[in-house]
Amino acid sequence: MTVVIRRHKGTPMIAAAALSNFLGSAVSLPLGLGIGAVSSADLGVLAMFGACQVGLGLTLFTVGSRLLPSAQASLIATLETPLMPFWVWLAFAEVPSLRAVIGGALVMGAVVADIVLGQRAQPAPAER
Questions:
Q1: Which residues are CB-contacts of 101 (< 8 A; sequence separation ≥ 6)?
Q2: Across the chain, what does the average pLDDT equal?
């Protein structure tokens, strides 16, 4: 997905990203056998998750990935997984396990190191 977005910079990809979410929802709906048992409070949480994390996150990633090399955009996207325990802790006070914290710190450290070392390796722009 990231490579396609970078390759076709002139094509509006926000609509394609939205369509992919709708299609994913349609395919997943038959798998939600107990969906009728969801309380209204839980439905609100699920709606916020869909709008904020999935909708807004995918939109911002789609817009931002046009500005970065594909490999770097994909690497930054891997931060979603180690940041999940942090967001759950922040929103619901659920403390992540030590393994989750260590694993997340390793992934985040690798991404930050790649970004920092990648910027150092780039040649300085020529002055006129």
A1: 85
A2: 81
